[in-house]
Amino acid sequence: MGLFRDETPVDAGLTTGAVARRLGVSPTTLRSWDRRYGIGPAVRPDGRHRRWTPQDVAMVETMCRLTSAGVPTAEAARAAQKGTGEGAPDDWEDDGDLGVAEGGGPAPAPARPRSSAPTASAAGAADPTAADVRQECRGLARAAVRLDAPAVEERLAGVVERYGVTVAWQEVLVPTLHAVGRKWESSGDRYVEVEHLLSWHVSTVLRRCAAPAGSRHETAAPGPVVLACVPGEQHTLPLEALNAALSQLGLPSRMFGAAVPAEALVAAVDRLGPTAVVLWAQARSTASVPLARHVAAARWGVKGARRRPVVVLGGPGWHGRPSEGMVRPSALGEAVDMLTDLYGRVS
C-alpha cells in the first residue's frame, strides 16, 4: 500500500486527514481555510465526520496552487470558489512542484551502501519505493512553498519516523532541499524564504531525533565522534543528520556546529580523545587540508598505547584534495556504516 493512498470508498468521500496527506497540507490549515473562507466540504452529514467530494478536493487543490504561487489567501479562496484559478503566475506550476515530480526531478539521492552494519532506519520499516519518494518530496515541497510550517514539520517528522534518519535524509530531505535551492536560483532569488523555512524545520526535526546529552551511557573509551564544520563553513545540516543517526544507534558524539575556529577544534580534540573527527566543508575555499592533517596527527593516551582519531572528510569541498590516511564517505549511509564498524573494532 502506498503512503498516501486512502482506502475510503470514493462514494463516501475523503476524510480531512486523507485530503491533507494527499495535498501536503496540514489538517489545521484545511480547517482554518474552511472556517475563514468556506474552502471545505460542501456536504456534512449529521453526526458523521466531514467528507470531501472530488469537487471539494478540486477546489482546495486550486487554493493550494494559488497560495503556493504567492496569491494572497483571501484572493486565492475567492478564485477557488469561483472555479477560475485565475491569479496564479505562469512561472510556478503544479502546486509547488519544485522539479521533484515524475519526469522532471532532481538527480536521485546517492544509493545507500549495502552493508551488514546496522543503520539508523526505523525498526521494521521497509525502504520507500520510487513512487513513495516522489510523493514524499512533492508533498514536502508543496507545504514549504505555501510556508505552511505545521505541515512541513509534520511531514518531516513522519518521513523520519517511517524510514529512519539515514533513508529520510538521502532520499527525501536532500532532493527536496536541492530542488528548492534550484528553484530560487532560477527565479532571480525569489522564494528564498521557502528555503530558509524548510532548512529551519529540517534542523528542528533532526535535533529532536538526537538523544539529549546525558541520556546515553557513555564509557571513557572509546571516545566520541567529534562533528565540526571547518572555519568559515556555515552549512551544518549534513552534520546534524549524521549526529541524529549516530544518536539513534547509541554512538556518542559531540556536535560543534558551524565555522569552528581551528584553535577551538584542536583544543576539543585534545580534551575529548575522540574515536573519529568529522570535518565538513561545503566549498573548496573552506576545505583546509593542513587543518585536517593536524587533527589526524593528534595523539593521546599512555606511552606505548597512544591513539589518534580517524579523520572523516565530509562534503564536496574536499573533492580532489589530498586525503592520505583519512576517509571520504560519499553519503550519509556510508558514513554511518563506517563509524559503526569503527566503534565495533575499538570497543
Short description:
With 347 residues, the protein is mainly alpha-helical. The protein is built from eleven helices and four strands.
Name its key features:
3 domains; disordered N terminus; mainly alpha; Rossmann fold; Methyltransferase, Methionine Synthase (B12-binding Domains), Chain A, domain 1; Multidrug-efflux Transporter Regulator, Chain: A, Domain 2; 347 residues
Uncertain runs are: 1-11, 85-124
The computed structural class is: mainly alpha
Radius of gyration, taken over Cα atoms and rounded to an integer in Å: 23 Å
CATH architecture of the largest domain: 3-Layer(aba) Sandwich
Give the N-to-C terminal Cα separation: 41 Å
Strand/helix succession: HHHHHHHEHEHEHEH
Strand order of the largest sheet: 2-1-3-4
Q: Roughly what percent helix?
A: 40-55%
Count of separate DSSP helical elements: 11
Shape: elongated
Structure summary, number of beta strands: 4
